Amino acid sequence: MSISINRLQKTFQKTFESQCPTNFLHTHKILPPLTHRLKKRTMTGMQVFEGRICPPPTSGNITIVVARFNKTITQRLLDGAVAKLLQHKMHADDIRVVWVPGSYEIPFMAEHFAKDPDCMAVICLGAVIKGETSHDQHINRYVSMSLGETAAQYGKPVIFGVITCDTVEQANARSGIIESEKDKARNPAPGNKGAEAAEAALEMIDLLEEIPDYRVAFSPQEILSRLMGDDDDDDDDDDDFDDMPFFPPLPSRRGGKGVKKAKKGTKK
Fold first, then answer.
1. What sign does the CA torsion over 186, 191, 192, 198 have?
2. Quick one: pLDDT at residue 47?
3. pLDDT at 19 exceeding the cut of 70
4. What residue ranges define each of the domains in the chain, with the CATH number in brackets?
């Protein structure tokens, strides 16, 4: 029997809120904020969630992982990303820049910082330009797939800001400089993919604050015991969360179909 996540979450909230103050739960992000449950519906009954390019609603930092290879290009990507973040009221202290040798090393460092609870998003910047061999294809495939897996694993935005071009002129046109007449005809205004990656990160951070949180929740007893510091001082504390149950079991329906009551006595 399939059970919707919404039904499970409602049952969890009803059970847990009876044991702990509601405001405390939402303040400590044990349950989704109250605004999630009070989300207004549109005229057609659909729920529409959309992020905005705005200052992050929560405190934290944004990490920018940038490749040193083709630095004349990646430096301009970095400048564009930092300028866009500062434009949207990000503090310089909340921006962390990490240089790596090349684009191939970006996924490793992106995963490292994605583990940081204070990291709201990871912006990955690099420039891979096609050469005489197919080397660029292997790098592009590995980097894009690895960054997508990291984002899904840690549940936070990992922005792909690695430009993949055939020529240096194309890379310059996408990092704030236009030198080719062909590029001028296609895009009269210079673009900067680093700035676009920063905008995507800000929008995704805001979107995550708008949508309900459907991550696995622990039982009320387990959460209360950990909040009160009743857990044992053993070496397996980090593994305790893996053994926690999912939402509390749903109440059984009385007289439902397929439920037979056991008869007293036995037939002879």
1. negative
2. 84
3. no
4. 5-49+213-230 (no CATH), 61-210 (3.40.50.960)
146-168 average pLDDT score: 94
| 3-state class percentages of the chain: helix first, strand second, coil last, to nearest 5 | 45, 15, 45
Question: pLDDT class for 167, splitting at 50, 70, 90?
Answer: very high
The candidate with the shortest Cα–Cα distance to 156, out of 119, 183, 103, 106, is: 119
Q: Which of 26, 28, 112, 135 is catalytic?
A: 135
100: alpha, beta or left? (left if phi > 0; alpha if psi -120 to 50): beta
Name 122's bridge partners.
63, 158
Cα–Cα dist 82/17, whole Å: 42
The gap from C-alpha 147 to its chain's centroid, in whole angstroms, comes to 11
Q: Which residue has the tokens 């900067």?
A: 192
**Catalytic residue list contains 135:** yes
pLDDT higher than threshold 60 for residue 52: yes
Q: What is the pLDDT of residues 105-132, one digit of tens each?
A: 999 999 999 999 999 999 999 999 999 8
User: Do 64 and 58 meet the contact criterion of CB atoms below 8 Å apart?
Assistant: no
